[in-house]
Amino acid sequence: MQIHNQNQKHPIFQLLSYFLLISQLFPFSLADVGTAAQYSPPYLPTACYSDDQTQFPSSNLFAAAGDGIWDNGASCGRQYLVRCISASRPGTCVPDQTIQVKIVDYAPTAQSPPSAQSTTIVLSETAFGGITNLAVDSINIEFQQV
Fold it and tell me: Distance between CA 131 and CA 142 in Å, rounded?
């Protein structure tokens, strides 16, 4: 009579167990990493909705898309979760603070110039202030479309 080791009979369970262990030790993220700047009023007209005041969320958490996420205008109306992960000055980021912004404009053609050029996203003053403690031109962010 032969006795088989349970793991030899079901190697798929052993692989799944290892995957589960690794996934708990190293959480996977679907977010991307980029940079963000801020811009100030006037915000109108925008590339997405022109002079329509109703385009802005009541929270004033909105943004202009940089070239990397503009997608030929398809990004208009998209919502992104944005979190500050680092900046040139220590203490800039509000720890564990994530905001949700709506894309209402295209950064290169925005009515008001951003605090830094060629960033992934340009946040409204309110949005930028929601994830930063200090005045800086740009920050490094983690962002994810929702």
Answer: 11
d(CA 134, CA 64): 21
DSSP label at residue 75:
T
Q: What is the pLDDT of residues 6-20, one digit of tens each?
A: 545 667 767 666 666
Q: Do 113 and 39 form a contact (C-beta atoms < 8 A)? A: yes
Report pLDDT for 1: 53
pTM: 0.81
- Residue showing tokens 């110039």: 113
User: What's the burial of 65, exposed, middle or buried (CB within 10 Å: 0-12/13-18/19+)?
Assistant: buried
**31-83 pLDDT, tens per residue?**
899 999 999 999 999 999 999 999 999 999 999 999 999 999 999 999 999 99
**Cβ contacts of residue 114 below 8 Å, gap of 6+?**
37, 38, 39, 64, 107, 122
Question: With contact defined as beta carbons under 8 Å apart, do 43 and 56 qualify?
Answer: yes
Among 86, 73, 77, CA closest to 33: 86
